[in-house]
Amino acid sequence: MAAKKVLIVYAHQSSGSFNAAAKDAAVEVLAAQGCTVEVSDLYAMKFKATATAEDINGKVKNPEHFRYADETKLAWEEGKLSLDITEEQRKLTEADLIIFQFPMYWFTVPAIMKGWIDRVLTLGYAYSKEKRYSQGVFKDKMAMLSFTTGSHESMFSANGINGDMNVTLWPLQNGILHYCGFQVLAPHIFWAPSYIDAEARSAMLQGWRTRLQGLLGEKPLTFTPLDCFDGEKGYQLKPEVHEKHAAKEFGLTVGIHLGKALPPNNQMKAGV
Question: Following DSSP, what letter does each residue of 184-232 receive, concatenated?
Answer without folding.
Answer: EPPPEEE--GGGS-HHHHHHHHHHHHHHHHHGGGPPPPP---GGGEEGG
